[in-house]
Amino acid sequence: MTPAAWAFIFQIAAPLGNDLITRLLNLYHQDRSGTPVTSEQWLALGREVSSKTADQFLENSLNKLASNAPAAPPSA
Amino acid sequence: MKKLFNSICLGAVLCMAALATPIIVGVSVSGCAGTRGQEQTYTTTEALGATVDTASQIFTDYEVVRAQGALGPAATKEDLRAWVRSDPSYQTFTGLRNQFNNVFNQWCQINAVLATQTNAPSALADPKFRLAAIQAAGELTLFIAGIVGHDKVQVVNVNQP
Known about the structure:
Distance between the termini of chain A: 69 Å
Number of helices of chain A: 4
Radius of gyration of chain A: 20 Å
Helix content of chain A: 55-70%
Order of helices and strands of chain B: HEEHHHHHHE
Distance between the termini of chain B: 59 Å
Number of strands of chain B: 3
Oligomer: heterodimer
């Protein structure tokens, strides 16, 4: 992929946030080092990021709440 | 096209800048009587700099605390889950998250096509291809602004006596 294409990608990706930007940078460095990013790598990134549903985030929040709750006092 | 793309990006940035007021979102999870559990505080600007996933997690953390405030500390996990799922804000979030997932996946598919082009700028020059990429970008930025916009809330502090 040409530098111009990457510049376009990063322009669009700017609001995605630090973690996703870092992942894109890794792909960019891979590409610049001579190993082209494959279509499958792009598709895999899309599948991975987009597979997280609202309910999965909700379960994370509920599990955090459960893990932070103090243990029940022992019964007398 | 470039002007259109720049306009969309500028609009999104201005929208996010307007949302990035120094409002603190405090999420305090209380345990049993008199105790305080984990407290996480995010500023809107931190959420903007974070990932879409972090913004999503902030939102559901907040929803769970709201549910606990509404139902009380004795609420079970199932009660909290049901309450959140019935909340209109969460339902809106679910729609937005699904939209992001679809758009992000489409964007990666666009990049997958680009990866097959030996001369990628020629693909970018294609009006349909470029328009699809611009549309995906616009939807992504608007979605993030919409999610982070939920951070404009009062500090929520559930600390049952």
